[in-house]
């Protein structure tokens, strides 16, 4: 455009005035076109990816009963391990003056002193805070009036056991001031031999958990190895090995325990029941592992490993077994409550740990003699068995759901 050209005659072409307008135009249909800045892709991940272990833990923690089971097992394990060390009593120390003392006692107050009559008509004096001061001895029995008189200095305390329930008289006057008092010396009471039930309960839980964990560990090793070999090689090897499993599983566990106790006459019931559980308790684990291995061995990565010349032991140990870890963990968790129940049952019928060693089963057996008069002696170990079994079952259910991707929400 020259200087004399009229302004209205100037070119209106955008390319002549805007250099960016000369850039190639990108259409929306171009698949390789870059997205404008600030545009959010519809295929962007809504949350960061998680590893298998982290996803499993997260799913497990979202199950309230499983978390409750873990807390209960941890608390009972700590109580079983450290409780007997901190207790002022021992599991085998007897005190016949304090036989069958309940956790709460109906005491009679006379002249600022508190008295309690035991089931065998012994009189025990307590302090105001529930501590046992001592047993009152030297009573003179009057069989005609069915009374026992105790001299307390210048005063006389009389136990009238003709009345139902027995009552006290202080200097000939009935004691009417009674109250319920917690036994702070023996929190859960005493048994028929005057032994502290709380200490025996903690020691019994230690015995039961120890036997269950040892049996589970031994059976885990035997069951995984046996079931893995049987499922991997299959064919005739699998047929022979499974027939051995069938034979072992048909023999009653009680017979194993009796035979082992005969062979190990001086070893005590603890070793006998551990050996018995370790001998026959692995068959369930072997069946579970065999079934899982039979499925995994036909997958492509196993065939690829064989093609590359990998040995059978390495394929089984490093490729197949890690893929069935979920089933192994769940089955092992379920084995623990079953072992606890079996140990308690064996001890209950006299084939478990030998007295005076405490076990949940032996405590339940000892409580049968005083079931009507002192039912708490049976309910306490029975409740401990139930709580342990429910807690481990809750953990097993939580692990089963957490390790199964189909169950995750």
Automatic annotation (TrEMBL):
Keywords of the record: Cell membrane, Membrane, Transmembrane, Transmembrane helix, Transport
Chain intervals for the UniProt region annotation (Disordered): 1-31
This protein's record includes keyword Transmembrane helix: yes
Biased composition, class Polar residues, residue ranges: 1-11
Pfam families reported in the protein's UniProt record: BPD_transp_1 (PF00528), OppC_N (PF12911)
Coiled coil: none
Cellular compartment(s): Cell membrane
Superkingdom of source: Bacteria
Compositionally biased region (Low complexity): 12-31
Domain ABC transmembrane type-1, residue spans: 205-396
Membrane topology per record: Multi-pass membrane protein
TM regions (residue ranges): 65-86, 209-233, 253-283, 328-358, 378-399
Family statement drawn from the similarity comment of this UniProt entry: Belongs to the binding-protein-dependent transport system permease family.
Protein name as it appears in the record: ABC transporter permease
Organism: Leucobacter albus
């Amino acid at each position: 455009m020259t200087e004399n050209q009229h302004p209205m005659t100037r070119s209106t072409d955008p390319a002549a005035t805007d250099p960016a307008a000369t850039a190639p135009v990108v259409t929306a249909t171009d698949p390789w076109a870059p997205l404008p800045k600030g545009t959010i892709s519809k295929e962007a991940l809504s949350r960061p990816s998680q590893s298998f272990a982290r996803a499993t833990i997260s799913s497990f923690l979202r199950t309230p009963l499983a978390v409750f089971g873990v807390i209960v097992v941890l608390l009972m394990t700590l109580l079983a391990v450290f409780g007997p060390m901190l207790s002022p009593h021992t599991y085998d120390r007897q005190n016949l003056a304090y036989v069958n003392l309940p956790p709460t006692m109906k005491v009679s107050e006379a002249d600022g002193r508190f008295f309690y009559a035991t089931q065998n008509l012994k009189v025990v004096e307590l302090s105001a805070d529930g501590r046992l001061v001592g047993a009152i001895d030297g009573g003179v029995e009057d069989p005609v009036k069915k009374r026992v008189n105790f001299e307390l200095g210048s005063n006389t305390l009389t136990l009238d056991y003709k009345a139902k329930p027995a009552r006290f008289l202080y200097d000939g006057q009935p004691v009417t001031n009674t109250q319920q008092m917690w036994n702070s010396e023996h929190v859960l009471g005493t048994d028929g031999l005057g032994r502290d039930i709380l200490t025996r309960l903690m020691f019994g839980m230690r015995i039961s958990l120890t036997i269950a964990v040892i049996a589970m560990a031994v059976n885990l090793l035997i069951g995984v190895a046996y079931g893995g070999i049987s499922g991997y090689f299959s064919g005739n090897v699998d047929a022979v090995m499974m027939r051995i499993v069938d034979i072992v599983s048909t023999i009653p566990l009680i017979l194993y325990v009796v035979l082992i106790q005969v062979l190990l006459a001086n070893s005590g019931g603890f070793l006998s029941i551990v050996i018995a559980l370790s001998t026959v308790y692995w068959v369930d684990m072997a069946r579970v592992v065999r079934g899982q291995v039979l499925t995994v061995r036909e997958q492509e990565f196993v065939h690829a490993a064989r093609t590359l010349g990998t040995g059978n032991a390495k394929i089984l140990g490093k490729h197949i077994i890690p893929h069935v870890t979920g089933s192994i963990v769940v089955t092992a968790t379920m084995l623990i409550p079953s072992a606890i129940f079996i140990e308690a049952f064996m001890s209950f019928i006299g084939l478990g740990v030998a007295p005076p060693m405490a076990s949940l089963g032996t405590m339940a057996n000892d409580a049968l003699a005083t079931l009507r008069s002192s039912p708490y002696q049976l309910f306490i170990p029975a409740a401990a068995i139930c709580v342990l079994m429910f807690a481990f079952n809750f953990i097993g259910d939580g692990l089963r759901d957490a390790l199964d991707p189909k169950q995750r929400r």
